Amino acid sequence: MDMQVAKKKLGLKERYAVMTRGLDWTPSYQKMEDIYPYMAYEGIKIHDWDKWEDPFRLTMDSYWKYQAEKERKLYAIIDAFAQNNGHLNVTDARYINTLKLFISGISPLEYVAHRGFAHAGRAFPGAGPRVACLMQSLDEIRHAQTQVHAISNYNKYYNGMHDFHHMHDRVWFLSVPKSFFDDAITAGPFEFMVSIGFSFEYVLTNLLFVPFVSGAAYNGDMGTMTFGFSAQSDEARHMTLGLEVIKFILEQDPANVPIVQRWIDKWTWRGYRVLTLVAMMMDYMLPKRTMSWKEAWEVYFEENGGALFKDLARYGITMPKCAEQIALEKDHLSHQAWSTFYNYAAAANFHTWMPDEDEMTWLSSKYPESFDKLYRPRYEFWREQAAKGNRFYSKTLPMLCQTCQIPMVFTEPGEPTKICYREVDYKGDKYHFCSDPCKQIFEHEPEKYIQAWLPVQQIYQGNCFPEGTDPTVEGFDALAAVLKYYNLENGRDNLDFDISEDKKNFAEWRGQATKNI
Amino acid sequence: MHIDLRTVSIKPLRHTFDNVARRIGSDKPASRYQEGTLDMQQTANFHYRPTWDPEHAIYDASRSAIVMADWYAFKDPRQFYYGAYTLTRARQQDTAESNFDFVENRGLAATLPEPLRDTVLKLLLPLRHVAWGSNMNNASVCAYSYGTGFSQPHIYQAMDQLGIAQYITRVGLVLGDVDALDEAKRAWMEDDTWQGLRRFVEDSFVIKDPFELFVVQNVVLDGLMYPLVYDTIIDEVLSSQGGTPVAMLTQFMTDWYAETRKWVDATVKIAAAESPANKEVLAAWLSAWRDRAAAALLPVARIGLADQTDEVMGEIVLQFNARMAKAGVAI
């Protein structure tokens, strides 16, 4: 028998290299710029794609194996949860409103992330980033689907979630998260990676995804908690990718630094404005709180983010300037947001309520600088009014910020009793902004932001009524027509929690499940 | 015997989401495939046009010449959502792993006749680049196509092709070593045998119409190449010459093709049944790209088939035509 020549033994890194980069080649029958047409226009210069350090080395065979194991466990728990009426174990029915916010506001974004990472993966000429992006694209469809599957059981018993795709594309406040992701995916592939891969996944994920999952854990929601924990190792991979992207771009060319800095500034602010919804969720909607918004911001942004930006200083990247303004807003953000939703509860797909006495005490202790002085009196007044049968629902439409699309309810930095207004004249039209950062973002790319589909303007233009509606007939009820367009069932999906079907059903069902009546 | 385990039963207010109920006709319990697929992609009130493609909306059906009244007419007969997909692939991966173990532990690679081993290395290893190209093309279809019913299977297909490229790489490392991979890449870049196929693949990279790209990659190229390379050359010709261990190492590809072609056929069938105009577009794409692919594969086929090449290739093209005719497109 012939002696076998000993084969070269491959190390893990080399083995991964032949499994990914070794597959790629430099084309000669078509031009690079025709195959990768989106590489130049953002002004980012990449000299050597091979300098990319693979953030994780996962071949498809191990990917399938690990992920299938996670899926098996996750769906076993979701099934058990459904069979067991797990929804009746949550702290109280108010909690379920966070899930309405989540499935109509956040889950559709996971789907956009899936498509966006497919786009970025296709657009980059480097084999390393392509594989990492496509794996994330695959993970993101997982997240979108496991969220829908986990929350599906709640939809069977509670209102407000029944047409979440339709609502995501239409309901006024959902244009805030939607426009955020639309903004990212319509940007070039490099900006997409900085916006979602870095700013969103790396810098802000602990303030978005984590509060919902921890909130679920604190409030007895096994189903939601499980998909969160199951996604944790995916998220860890995504964070590593986000950081690698930014380091790679910065190391490639010094001319990339100012472009990236502008993107980090923009997306930190854009992300923070979307977190307004999370802030009010943390401070008002979780019956059992995990931590206050302010605490979360201090831990996850000011401390952890501070360390990150120190680390990036060697590339010439500095902490986004907007961080100072955010720090000034942290005593006010959640209260101003909740007040707004309390007012507009007729047009939202979840219920609102006034905090009870214990909760007011908790809020005072978490916000000693602002709560008792500015917000408690307001709430006490509203509570009194509600007790007298004057629960107020605002039916007029608010002015929206052209960039973040949140109603203009935020106050001047450092002046919490004065509403902040900014405006810009552009090509004969006036555009309104909630803040300096939103105004600056617009000024940098006005042609992009004038396209925004602003829900209020669209209603006034008659674009948010069911087909065939005649708004000129006598006694036309605009709100009713808009709710129909949203497919939001008046009296069931909206209004105050106290009078909701959710509250009534939950009490009845819990009784049925725990008492012998 | 029937045992009656009791649970507290509460009457649900509804059985599925409204969008699913509208599509399946009534409010009845829906499958995970349905809830995880239908209407997942946003359809209305987009805020900005892509800076990278201002002519189109973010998701825009007009990127394709194929016109559908409803893109959710496309359904995956495998009902793959992420969970079902990964569980299926993990099972196949188990089989592949034990096949590799079997071949490696018994030293079967060393028992292959030398000429046969060379044939396999020459034929199979450059195909890892073709699979890599397919990974990119399927990512493209996933990114730019319309409706999750059509776009979703393409991310699975993209990752499958990356997996296949990696399996081929492993075959190369079992039967040869890194030098064999390098040599195959050199052949892919330089040898006349491969230039037709490389040109075909690179030309597919610049196709903008996502449905055309689906046709070129998943219908035409895979539709000729998998029956040729895996079903015919490896599983029949080489196996009869003592190459069964190779067939074990490529079982994943054989099984994968048998599975994915069901989805491919269903997709062609639905698009063709939609309108005579679609059928015409499909027929034009299919026949033009089929001729190019068959010509490009001919020198590759010769590596394994020698003087039987023309006959076998002719047979494979006929089978492909019959398959398309069954899906509703005569070519």
Keywords:
heterodimer, A: 517 residues, mainly alpha, two-stranded antiparallel sheet, 60% helix, B: Ribonucleotide Reductase, subunit A, 14 helices
How would you describe what is shown here?
Chain B: GO terms for molecular function: oxidoreductase activity, acting on paired donors, with incorporation or reduction of molecular oxygen, NAD(P)H as one donor, and incorporation of one atom of oxygen. The complex is a heterodimer of chains A (517) and B (331). By secondary structure, chain A is mainly α. Chain A has one domain: Orthogonal Bundle (Ribonucleotide Reductase, subunit A). In chain A, 60% of the residues lie in helices and 3% in strands. Chain A is built from 20 helices and four strands. In chain A, strands 1-2 form a two-stranded antiparallel ribbon. In chain A, a hairpin with a 2-residue loop joins strand 1 and strand 2 (415-419). In chain A, helix 4 (96-123) runs antiparallel to helix 8. The longest helix of chain A is centred in the middle third of the chain and has 31 residues, at 222-252. The N and C termini of chain A lie far apart (84 Å). The mean pLDDT of chain A is 95. Chain B has 331 residues and is mainly α. Chain B has a single domain, classed as Ribonucleotide Reductase, subunit A, CATH 1.10.620.20. Chain B is globular. The model of chain B has no long low-confidence stretch (mean pLDDT 97). The interface between A and B is large, with 96 and 81 residues.
Quick overview:
The complex is a heterodimer of chains A (517) and B (331). By secondary structure, chain A is mainly α.
List the helices and strands and how they pair.
The complex is a heterodimer of chains A (517) and B (331).
Chain A: H1 12-19, H2 32-35, H3 60-83, H4 96-123, H5 127-155, H6 164-168, H7 175-186, H8 189-218, H9 222-252, H10 256-285, H11 293-312, H12 322-329, H13 333-343, H14 357-366, H15 371-387, E1 411-412, E2 415-419, E3 422-426, E4 429-433, H16 436-444, H17 446-449, H18 455-460, H19 478-486, H20 501-514
Helix pairs in contact in A: 3-9, 4-5, 4-7, 4-8, 5-9, 7-8, 8-9, 8-10, 8-11, 10-13
Chain B: H1 18-24, H2 32-37, H3 82-105, H4 108-111, H5 114-124, H6 127-144, H7 148-175, H8 178-190, H9 192-204, H10 210-238, H11 244-249, H12 251-274, H13 276-305, H14 309-326
Helix pairs in contact in B: 5-13, 6-7, 6-9, 6-10, 7-12, 8-9, 9-13, 10-12, 10-13, 10-14, 12-13, 13-14
Protein name (chain B): Phenol hydroxylase
GO molecular function (chain B): oxidoreductase activity, acting on paired donors, with incorporation or reduction of molecular oxygen, NAD(P)H as one donor, and incorporation of one atom of oxygen
Keywords (chain B): Monooxygenase, Oxidoreductase
